[in-house]
Each structure stands twice: as structure tokens, then as C-alpha cells.
Amino acid sequence: MTAAERRVQFGAHPVAYPLVRGLGLVYPVVRVPRVGVVVSDAAIARQVLSDPVSFTKTGPGSPADLWTPVVGPRVLLNMEGAEHAELRRKLGGLFTARAVSSLCAEVAAAPMAFLSSELRAGRPVDVVSVVKDLAGAVICALVGLPSADRAELARAFAAGTAMTSMVRLGRPRLTPSQVARCRSVLADLTAPAVRAYADGDPSTVPGRMRELGLTESEALGAVAAFVLTGTETLVSYVPRLIALAIDTGWLARLSLDRTRLDDVVNEGLRFTVPSPVMLRSVARDAFVGGKRVKAGERVVIATISCAKTLGPFDPDRPHSPALRQLWFGAGAHFCLGMPLAYAEIRTVLETLLGLDGLSIVERRVARRVLIPAYERLVVRCG
Ligand code: HEM
């Protein structure tokens, strides 16, 4: 691990990270009191994720336990079976190559113009705040609002993370007051989506969802799912990728050979794992890597440990089939927004390529947050 990346991970979870990583080095599967059955092996993790009959997202200790009181029962990440597959099928139209590149071009234009012009003028830029603008612009697009100014983007982003920041691994449910706060944030966030859905204008995402055959409540649920899953992950990942690429000299290499961009992005995902754990509830007695588990237990897939076995950041090394894209999940719940995530990540990285002598002038780690991240990462040219 680069020293900087270790500080990011330990800054978020000074106790849990070393513990989970330490356990993972010794045990591929281990039962940890008050946490669950922790899986640290990629092949076993893939088996669990690919068996939705035995391991679900809807039982005790699962994501449904956390989110259903806030978002209702039909939000993809708390659904299983035929209903889940049908909702995913309807939403697929939002993430085609064409839809994603037009959404990304629309949402990224202003933040990328700001990033590029400030750096070209020789001024320092905090990459974290630029990626927050980008994530805020995505939220605005999802709820059908034009992303007008930076203050508005910041409000949208803050509203989105107000919900995710309440989650802790050792606490399988939100408290009633957290649920109330999340519900009020969500009602504010989705109010424009209700109007955009009613207007049915297919140039807005809610209007497009209506065209794809989603009911109003499915469309609002999908917006909530996108905000919960697609905001903090990106704000965590993109600055960490940029820091890694600068620290290891890969950003300069990419400026000379852009064909390696996807290798760097994929290895960066493997090395940082912006979605460090996945949760499942055991629906019926089963075995996980030879260990018996009982219905009602919680399985914690420590994706971070599964991915780390490969060692230091090295975009030249291929990923094994068991590991391939595990950071986006596997099986029926595989990340629906992956094409959009890639489009946003590539856009930021490509904006930085070709700028002379980009270096990091300040970095500050975010402390005690759910997803490890930089609080500030200031870069400058020359
Ligand atoms: C680097 C960025 C991202 C990472 C690492 C990531 C990772 C993941 C992972 C690991 C899952 C599966 C969780 C599980 O099985 O328990 C997931 C699901 C999901 N992601 Fe992403 N994600 C990212 C960005 C996005 C974006 C930008 C969006 C959309 C705006 C998005 C939308 C979703 C949705 C809707 C699901 C739920 C799918 C389902 O349950 O069927 N994600 N993501």
C-alpha cells in the first residue's frame, strides 16, 4: 500500500480497518461477534454474491434493514427475485453507452471547465471539491434539475451524503431519529423529481424513466438508490485515483500513452476499493467457504481484503477471474451504475492528462467517515 493510501484508509477506520485486514490475512472466513461472518476471499465472496436464494439483501442485518425504513421496500438494493430483475431491466435504458455519455457530457461540462481553466492559469485546485461538484451535478440531473451554480451543486451533494454518512458497520439499523432525518432529506431531494416525472420531458432523467415504463414510485426509488450508491463512492475514488497516479508516476505515463487509462482506473479500483464491504443476510442454513452459517446471520463481504491479496498498485498486472470487478459487486446486484461511474472517472482523469507538471500541494485525510476519502487534495501545475 502506498503510505498515503494507508493514511486514507486508517483515517476513516483507525480500529476496524487494521482489524478486518489482519483477520483477512489469516482467515478466508471468520465469525466476528456483533459484526457477522466476515469473508476475505474473492472466490468465496463471488459464490455468496451469486447465490441469492441463500444470501439475500432483504433479511436481518442486510441493506434492507438499513434502508427500507427510509426509502421504502422497492429500491433495487433492498429487493430480490423477479421484481428486482424486472426493475433492473426497466432501468437498463438509462445506462446504455449512448445515454451515459450524453448524461456525463451534460453534468461534467461545468466542473471540468473549472478544473481545467484554474489549473492552466497556474492556480491550485482542490480536486475533492471539484468531484463533489460533479457528484452534485449528477444528483441534479437525476432529479431533473438544471445544475446551475456551484452553491446549488454543493447543496445537492450535501443532501445526498447526509444520508450515507449515518451508516456504521457495527450498527445494522438506523435509529428512529436518523430515519426521520434521512426521510426529510430524501423528500427534499426527490421533490423536483416528482415534478419532472409528472412533466414527462424525456430530456430529464425522471421523464426518461417514465418513458421506460417506470411508475412514479419506482422512479423515485431509483433516484434514491442512485444517490445512496453513486455519490460517496465517486467522491472517495476519483481523488484517491489521482493521488495514486501522481504518487506512482502513472499520470505522467498516461499523458504519453492514453491507451493504458483503463488499466490504471481498474487497478486503482482494485487497490482502493471505494465500496469496501457488501452485506448479505443468510436466508437459509448454508455453508460459506466450508463454514456452516445459520439463517438470520449476517455475512460481511470484506471486498477490501479480497482485493488486497494481489499486493501493491501495479496497472501492468492482470486481475484474476475471481477478483475481476468485485469492487462493483457480482451476481444479480452487480453495480447498475458502473458505466456512468467509468464515464465520470475517465472524464476527470482525461481533463488532467497533458497538463504540465501536475503535483500535489496539499492533502488532508477525512477522519472517521464510512468510506475512506480525502477531505482535501490540492493539485497545481508547474
Ligand atoms: C466507483 C464508483 C462505484 C462503485 C465502486 C460502486 C460499487 C457498487 C457495488 C459494490 C454494488 C453492489 C453492492 C452489493 O451487491 O451489495 C453497487 C450497486 C449499485 N450501484 Fe454502484 N458503485 C459505484 C458507482 C455507482 C454510480 C455512479 C451509480 C449510479 C448513479 C451506481 C448505482 C448502483 C445501483 C443502483 C446499485 C444497486 C444495484 C442492485 O441492487 O441491483 N453505482 N455499486
Automatic annotation (TrEMBL):
Source organism superkingdom: Bacteria
InterPro entries (alphabetical): Cyt_P450 (IPR001128), Cyt_P450_B (IPR002397), Cyt_P450_CS (IPR017972), Cyt_P450_sf (IPR036396)
Family: Belongs to the cytochrome P450 family.
PANTHER family with a match to the protein in the record: CYTOCHROME P450 YJIB-RELATED (PTHR46696:SF1), P450, PUTATIVE (EUROFUNG)-RELATED (PTHR46696)
CDD domains the UniProt entry points to: cytochrome_P450
Protein name (record): Cytochrome P450
Pfam family, one: p450
Keywords recorded for this protein, A-Z: Heme, Iron, Metal-binding, Monooxygenase, Oxidoreductase
